[in-house]
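Appendix B, record 7
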Amino acid sequence: MKNMRHVVNVMRPPNPQGEDVRNNPPTVLRTKVPCSIEPMRGQEAERLSQMYATAIHTVGMYGDPAKLIKRVDKCIDQTGATLNVLDIRDPSRSQLGYIELICGEEPA
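Structure tokens (predicted):
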């Protein structure tokens, strides 16, 4: 486990179907979640940069099976930066225990 010196809020964008999406705020899944945010380096970062066009970070945190994180979700850090969840590394597949989110930066 890495040093969890960051804090994020996990948000889910509104469903694009149905009503006017612009008037629907995102859903807050989890607030003030302690985590580690690390830029990816090395061969893995190079491999992922071929699949995703954004800067890649790993966000490590403890999961909550009652509030499952999905690939459409966003992590908002304490500076207001938005990280889009691209993939979820979860050995238990139930988000019980430590999980890693592979995230890409959202352009400002």
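Remarks on this record: The chain has a mean pLDDT of 87. The chain has one helix and six strands.
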